[in-house]
Amino acid sequence: MYIITVRSMGGKIKTSIVIDRSLWEEFKRKVSEERGLKDVSSMIGELIEENFSDSLIINALSKLIGEAKVPEVLKPVKPLVETDAGRAVREMRDREV
Q: Is the pLDDT of residue 81 over 70?
C-alpha cells in the first residue's frame, strides 16, 4: 500500500492511496452498508485515530497542563469495583422504554 499526500485543506489533507482493489471494494461496501458511502473518508480517519489514540491523548494532555511532564505510555487500569456492562446496558435500555 502506498499513500500519496496531495494537498492541505485547513486542518485536513487530501491523500491518494494505492491498495488492493478487492480489499478496497470490500471496505467501501461494508462502510456504505453501515454508514453510507459518504462516510468512507470519516471511517478511515476514525480507524487511524483508534490506532494512534495514545499519542492523541498525550498531545491533548500536554496542551492542557503545559510544561508539566506527561507520561510517554498510557496503561489501562482495572476498575476498583466489579462491573457488568451487559447488565448496565440492559438497565439503561429498560429505563428508556
A: yes
